[in-house]
Design goal:
By secondary structure, chain A is mainly alpha-helical. Helices cover 50% and strands 5% of the residues of chain A. The longest helix of chain A has 20 residues. Chain A starts with a strand and ends with a helix. Classes of the chains: A mainly alpha, B mainly alpha.
């Protein structure tokens, strides 16, 4: 078959997945078709829900910036990130240093 | 005589001619220069595909440069080759196809993207030199020649990374890449010198035939592994990657992704074909595996906190290289054990090689979509972007495909290669598969962030003028999108015709040696 990949431990079939995806999509569209169609376009009914506040005209006022995304994740790993960011200093001498260090460690391991 | 026998030389000669004739084409103005860029790139891609097909049918090809006969690797009376020999097996041909497709996509994308720059004749020359260097690295069977092509590619990429001359960051990125690359190139040259001193030969097959794993060979191995791992952006030597990938023009970044794979190709050619079973201990395989895991995890965790779209994607490059290193490292670990190779090693190698083509295609596409966003909106800062899916529907569609593929979401091609890597590495140590899975989850998380902040959300007044990018840029992105969809829908064909022959060629050290040295000696 063109679509089945045997991994030696199991298998993957892309067309089975696509058929499943098509059935799920059909179900979603059917559910959507059950919704009310009598809302009035261009009125408040058409507006997004913004915590019961007035939606600002400019989207930039209400968007969560990328630097705030995953705040909890980065806060939980603060110690890890402090070290990691410090290592990425942008100093070209350190770039060369890491390569020399890697080569040295590998040399010790290979030569011993 | 059948012209196909000259394909290995033609695949390198065509972009070289493209580079040297670019200033002449430039005399014809913008239309002729653009036509030259696209035509030569397309011709190179077509020749690479024909070469790949030829190798599939005929087996390993050798091509002797400057000899009395193109196929005579050992002239009478000589016991080792003295001329430059191109040696193309299924792995080399596979790499040439991958690289030339990325070059073609980058060329189409650059037609309009580069219009804001001056000195475009030089850009076209450097672009083709980079392509020729990459293809030369992948097709040569000669260690010194590999170094020369590596230098051609490196020098061209210094110029291209720093091409945005009025941006100090671009000059700085080009300089840093130059410093670290030059050190790596010197280490490679010293390693080649070791082989020449020991064996009086620089042909890979000849050196592999005579290889005795002494101190000189060990030092040469260390220099080659460290240098080539740095050139493909492996942790902890990856620092140049975010700088260079971010500052290079988007079409060039797409090609740089493929060029980094040529270094990865060199790393595995050295490990499998040059040293092969003489590696003996498991130190080098485990070093590659550990560097792979570190690259995966550190790359992706650094990507999560980025707010500059190309820099975020550059850290993901580091992370994706980790998957390939992990897969091929496990294959190398199983090289001396036929049972381990049959049980999980070959599956890991297939996963690694399949991930290599997948990564080049979707990462190239992601960099092009980032370039499209910059071209249309004038910023790469995710804090400033937003709501662009409405006005850039085609770019959005292609971004979603590439993002889903890199995150390993089923049914995309990235899922299949990752599945092969997960299952095979689990058989070695379950923690390796766990690290790969966690990396995949974090990859998805960071691309959800990009999608949400750049494409979704309400319209922003500053982007009212924004519209979809020009058709040639869409064509460049579409080439890679079509390849991704093809690899997704026909995974069995891809594995059987593209990946498995490449993996078999890589483990067949005897076949690689015999193609040049014959059965005797």
């Amino acid at each position: 078959m063109w679509s089945t990949v045997y991994t030696g431990f199991g298998y993957w079939d892309v067309y089975t997945w696509l058929i499943f995806f098509a059935i799920a999509a059909a179900l979603v569209l059917w559910l959507r078709s059950l919704g009310r169609k009598d809302y009035k376009k261009g009125t408040d009914q058409d507006e997004i829900f913004y915590g019961s506040n007035v939606v600002p005209d400019d989207g930039s006022e209400i968007q969560v910036p990328a630097s705030s995304a995953y705040w909890g994740f980065t806060e939980a790993l603060k110690g890890y990130y402090e070290i990691l960011v410090e290592l990425h200093s942008g100093d070209a001498r350190e770039y060369v240093g890491y390569m020399v260090l890697t080569a040295s460690v590998l040399a010790v391991l290979v030569l011993l | 005589m059948n012209w196909s026998v000259h394909l290995p030389a033609l695949v390198i000669a065509v972009p070289l001619l493209g580079a040297f004739a670019a200033p002449v084409a430039g005399l014809g103005g913008k239309p002729l220069r653009n036509l030259w860029l696209v035509t030569v790139s397309a011709l190179t891609a077509i020749l690479s595909i024909i070469l790949w097909r030829y190798v599939q049918v005929e087996g390993i090809m050798v091509y002797v440069l400057g000899g009395e006969s193109w196929a005579l690797t050992l002239p009478s009376g000589l016991s080792w080759p003295i001329r430059i020999i191109l040696e193309v097996d299924a792995f080399s041909a596979f790499m040439a196809v991958v690289g030339s497709i990325a070059a073609l996509a980058g060329a189409f994308f650059s037609l309009r993207f580069m219009e804001r720059f001056s000195g475009l004749d030089k850009f076209v020359s450097l672009y083709f030199l980079l392509t020729a260097g990459m293809l030369g690295m992948e097709l040569t069977g000669d260690l010194f020649n590999f170094f020369v092509f590596l230098e051609i590619a490196s020098v061209a990429s210094f110029g291209l990374v720093a091409y945005w001359r009025d941006r100090p960051e671009a000059i700085e990125a080009g300089f840093k890449y130059m410093v670290v690359s030059t050190v790596a190139a010197m280490l490679i040259l010293i390693a080649v010198g070791f082989f020449y001193g020991r064996y009086n030969a620089v042909n890979m097959a000849a050196v592999a035939r005579m290889m005795r794993f002494g101190y000189a060979e060990k030092i040469a191995l260390v220099f080659l592994v460290a240098s080539l791992a740095m050139k493909c952006g492996t942790v902890p030597m990856h620092m140049w990657t975010p700088d260079a990938y971010t500052e290079a023009p988007a079409g060039v970044t797409c090609l740089l992704v493929a060029v980094s794979q040529a270094s990865l190709y060199g790393l595995f050619r050295v490990c499998f074909s040059l040293y092969g079973t003489s590696l003996g201990s498991s130190v080098v395989p485990w070093t590659i595996i550990v560097m792979g895991v570190l690259s995966m995890f550190i790359g992706v965790t650094m990507a999560v906190i980025q707010k500059e779209i190309k820099r975020l994607m550059a850290y993901h490059s580091v992370s994706q290289i980790g998957y390939i290193l992990l897969g091929l490292g496990v294959g190398l670990l199983a090289l001396n054990d036929p049972q381990a190779m049959a049980e999980y090693g070959f599956t890991a190698m297939k996963g690694g090689i399949f991930h290599l083509i997948n990564y080049t295609m979707y990462k190239g596409l992601l960099f092009l979509t980032a370039g499209a966003l910059y071209y249309a909106a004038g910023t790469r800062n995710l804090n400033e972007l937003g709501g662009l899916a409405r006005v850039m529907p085609h770019t959005t569609f292609m971004f979603v495909i590439a993002a889903a593929a890199i995150a390993g979401l089923p049914p995309f091609n990235g899922f299949v290669s990752k599945l092969l890597i997960y299952e095979s590495t689990f058989a070695v140590y379950p923690i390796l598969a766990v690290a790969a899975l966690v990396t995949s989850v974090l990859t998805l998380a960071s691309f959800v962030k990009v999608f949400q902040t750049a494409f979704l959300g309400p319209e922003k007044s500053v982007f009212q003028h924004v519209k979809e990018v020009p058709a040639t840029m869409l064509v460049g992105m579409s080439i890679l999108t079509i390849v991704i969809i093809g690899l997704t829908l026909f995974p069995t064909w891809s594995l059987a015709h593209l990946v498995e022959p490449a993996a078999k060629a890589l483990v067949d050290q005897a076949g690689y040696i015999t193609a040049v040295m014959g059965g005797g000696l």
